[in-house]
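As the next step, I selected for study one protein, both as residues and as discrete backbone shape codes, as given directly below:
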Amino acid sequence: MRYMSSRKIDDFEAFKIYLAMKHHFADKLDYKKYGTTNTKKETYLNRKDKKTFEELSRRYDKKSLEEFLLSVFVNVTDKGNLAIHRNEYMHSKYLLDSESSEIHKAWKKRIHSIRYTFKSDCEVLFAKASSGDIEFPNIFKSVGNNYPFIVQLEQKGEICLETLVIFEKIFGFLKRVKINDTTYWPEYRKKVEKYMSFLDVELDYYVGVVKTLLIEDYYENYGKYI
């Protein structure tokens, strides 16, 4: 993961980090490029939710707060899917609730085991695709105006979001998906794309995992695509 060095922060800086990351996922700012915004402290002092950021600054240093906010902005439920029911760009009133805490715990668990999880997810993805006679390119395409097969599995919680993001880093397939859904799909795609800059992985390793699985276990189905 890409972060600055960890250090303690005060409540005003916690607010600025929250605001900048919120803008990042709302497509108004590149947090990884520009960091926090030039918000005036007077603006913060007039807010009614200062106690939220006071508590966040007590709980987290800078790195940990970035990780926590990343997890809640991505907002993956325990059943998969990019949840949007609480507020698309995470109102501050949700930051201290139990759901945000559980989302953060689940995110940390996925990140800590990301290599193992990716390999396991690939096995699920390729097994289901091959048993359904889905050609390899169609795993990443919209067929019959449906979400791509890989997205369908992520939405069901059968593979994790990080696996989908890594495949997007490898193939860049999202921009080629044409689908009539103009409500949920654009938000889903944007969140995946906004997440990509935070998920810093050794791409060669994951390409190697995919190639090895295709050669050793799925060559008959997908060998011609290697």
